[in-house]
């Protein structure tokens, strides 16, 4: 984890290295102040020498200003270092997420990734800032203060040695009890974000079924869980403060009693072995505060690191998630044609899965063919086509595209020649032009309008006041489902792919528009291999070949007439839909 996060420092190295130097200088300047005050009291005030009072007063002012300067400078450099560190971490995490394969995405929920990029990074940033500031300042202050206090009175300085074991024991107990609770708390944050995200996405469904109360109670339950966990954790951590106060005031009382006893007895003629003076006793009080406050700061660092360790682990998980689908060794950068062949392909989503999602699939598709895929829900239709652009890798067997194994291709080259319109259509915030140009950022306005005509999208775009400059809201929320599907099809066509995959992407358009789109495909892109997944038989009945999938296996394959003649699943689906259409008429 540490090695992974340390790579994110990069341009934060200089301020991160300067901060400890400034903190050491600040600690030394602060420790000098009690010593200067001791000399001012003993050599100036007690002796009535105003020249010494002025001299040590000026030195005291210089030391104070120096401490302030070094402290402010350290704060600035620490802030710059931690901000750059957090920026680099977010950038690296987001960049790695962009390279996630589908199998990697399955491991992390969207809510969890949002929490890791925001809350967890913020906690790691705060911990990093404390490490480069307090982690150096507190030990330095502790060492410097103890050295100066020992020079002032070796005997009374031993008082601190009794407080340290007490504080260490308390700190160990706090860390052991608090860390598991904080770990649970951060996982609960994922549930909270997931609850909010799900509710916002499904707000129309929630309102239609009048389930606002249910959603509020669900959110309240998770919120109360976080509240109770944080309360429990903070109550545990809160014991650190009283323990420190007990140690500080106990040491002050002990030094006051012993110091006063020594000074009074020395005034009565008794020898003072430490040479302790009133100024020295006064400085010891300050050293006591500095030493024990340094211990308190160290304990707070441990508490902060305890809280941030869970966040650091979660950030490191995202950074360490490797890409299991990479460019092939041969790195082929050109597809000869759009031919596809599955050779005894098996696939399952995880090694622990009992059954294959695809089971011994063997099929050959010639370049330029139109292939329909039909089957019941959960028959692995989408899984079948996701093997072609290597969104997943097969578990067994081979997928041959353009005469070469897909594992041998350069990924960018392969996916640039395979256009997919997924079952879940997604549009991004921006104009229609900007959304369509995801297929080809250098495409002209005429090219964009041409593919929109092929996808039967031009007709409704022209009705918008701003036409192709119409702004699309995030997720395409200001267009209908059918309009969204047609825009996504146009975006895929702009890639000029050798293989076009439509994963149930005309389900929201009417049958007439669906027929027009298929006609445009036949006439305008005859050399492109077209794979159409559909629930409606009418969407695939004129395909060159129809594949019927059932439970991850090919149940039947052939043309519409051949499949209907043989009966089976295809005929059953066709008869049900035809009967339903006749009844509607």
Topology:
Layout: H1 2-6, H2 13-45, H3 50-98, H4 102-107, H5 110-152, H6 154-157, H7 159-201, H8 203-208, H9 212-238, H10 240-267, H11 278-320, E1 340-347, E2 358-365, E3 370-375, H12 381-386, E4 396-401, E5 404-405, H13 411-416, E6 418-421, E7 430-431, H14 432-436, H15 445-454, H16 458-461, E8 471-472, H17 481-493, E9 499-503, H18 511-524, E10 529-533, E11 545-550, E12 553-558, H19 560-566, H20 568-584
Parallel strand pairs: 3-10, 3-11, 6-9, 9-10
Antiparallel strand pairs: 1-2, 1-4, 4-5, 7-8, 11-12
Helix pairs in contact: 2-3, 2-5, 2-11, 3-5, 5-7, 5-11, 7-9, 7-10, 7-11, 10-11, 15-17, 19-20
Describe the structure.
With 585 residues, this protein is an alpha/beta fold. It has two domains: 2-320, ABC transporter transmembrane region fold (Up-down Bundle); 340-584, Rossmann fold, CATH 3.40.50.300. The chain has 20 helices and twelve strands. It has helices at 2-6, 13-45, 50-98, 102-107, 110-152, 154-157, 159-201, 203-208, 212-238, 240-267, 278-320, 381-386, 411-416, 432-436, 445-454, 458-461, 481-493, 511-524, 560-566, 568-584, and strands spanning 340-347, 358-365, 370-375, 396-401, 404-405, 418-421, 430-431, 471-472, 499-503, 529-533, 545-550, 553-558. The strands form three sheets. A six-stranded mixed beta sheet has the order 6-9-10-3-11-12. A hairpin with a 2-residue loop joins strand 4 and strand 5. The two termini are 65 Å apart.
């Amino acid at each position: 984890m540490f090695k992974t996060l340390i790579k994110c420092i990069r341009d934060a190295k200089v301020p991160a290295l300067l901060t400890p130097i400034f903190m050491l200088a600040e600690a030394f300047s602060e420790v000098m102040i009690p010593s200067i005050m001791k000399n001012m009291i003993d050599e100036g005030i007690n002796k009535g020498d105003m020249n010494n009072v002025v001299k040590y007063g000026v030195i005291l002012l210089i030391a104070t200003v120096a401490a302030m300067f070094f402290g402010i400078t350290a704060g600035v450099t620490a802030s710059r270092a931690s901000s750059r560190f957090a920026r680099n971490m977010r950038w690296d995490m987001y960049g790695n997420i962009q390279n996630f394969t589908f199998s990697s995405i399955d491991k992390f929920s969207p809510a969890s990734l949002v929490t890791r990029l925001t809350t967890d990074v913020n906690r790691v940033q705060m911990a990093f800032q404390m490490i480069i500031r307090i982690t150096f300042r507190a030990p330095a202050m502790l060492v410097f203060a103890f050295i100066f206090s020992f020079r002032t009175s070796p005997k009374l300085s031993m008082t601190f040695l009794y407080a340290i074991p007490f504080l260490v024991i308390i700190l160990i107990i706090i860390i052991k009890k608090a860390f598991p609770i904080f770990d649970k708390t951060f996982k609960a944050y994922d549930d909270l974000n997931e609850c909010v995200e799900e509710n916002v996405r499904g707000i129309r469904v929630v309102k239609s079924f009048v389930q606002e109360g249910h959603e509020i109670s669900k959110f309240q339950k998770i919120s109360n869980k976080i509240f109770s966990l944080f309360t429990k954790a903070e109550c545990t951590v809160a014991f650190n403060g009283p323990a420190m106060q007990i140690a500080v005031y106990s040491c002050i009382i002990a030094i006051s009693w012993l110091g006063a006893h020594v000074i009074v007895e020395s005034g009565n003629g008794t020898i003072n072995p430490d040479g302790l003076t009133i100024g020295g006793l006064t400085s010891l009080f300050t050293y006591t505060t500095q030493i024990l406050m340094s211990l308190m700061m160290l304990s707070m660092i441990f508490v902060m690191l305890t809280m941030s360790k869970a966040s650091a682990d979660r950030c490191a998980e995202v950074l360490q998630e490797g890409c299991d689908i990479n460019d092939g060794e041969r790195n082929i950068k050109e597809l000869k044609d759009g031919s596809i062949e599955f050779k005894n392909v098996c696939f399952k989503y995880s090694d622990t899965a009992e059954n294959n999602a695809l089971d011994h699939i063997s099929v050959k598709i010639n370049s330029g063919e139109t292939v329909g895929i039909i089957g019941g829900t959960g028959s692995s239709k989408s899984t079948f086509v996701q093997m072609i652009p290597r969104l997943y890798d097969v578990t067994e067997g081979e997928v041959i595209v353009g005469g070469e194994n897909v594992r041998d291709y350069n990924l960018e080259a392969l996916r640039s020649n395979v256009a997919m319109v997924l079952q879940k259509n997604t549009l991004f915030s921006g104009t229609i032009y900007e959304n369509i140009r995801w297929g080809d950022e250098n495409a002209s306005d005429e090219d964009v309008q041409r593919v929109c005509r092929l996808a039967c999208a031009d007709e409704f775009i022209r009705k918008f006041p701003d036409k192709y400059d119409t702004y699309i809201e995030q997720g395409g929320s200001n267009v209908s489902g059918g309009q969204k599907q047609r825009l996504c099809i146009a975006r895929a066509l702009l890639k000029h792919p050798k293989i076009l995959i439509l994963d149930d992407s005309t389900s929201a358009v009417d049958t007439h528009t669906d027929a027009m789109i298929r006609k445009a495909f036949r006439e305008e892109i005859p050399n492109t291999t077209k794979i159409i997944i559909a629930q409606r038989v009418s969407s695939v009945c004129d395909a060159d070949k129809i594949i019927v999938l059932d439970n991850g296996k090919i149940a039947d394959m052939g043309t519409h007439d051949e499949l209907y003649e043989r009966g089976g699943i295809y005929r059953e689906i066709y008869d049900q839909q035809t009967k339903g259409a006749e009844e509607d008429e």
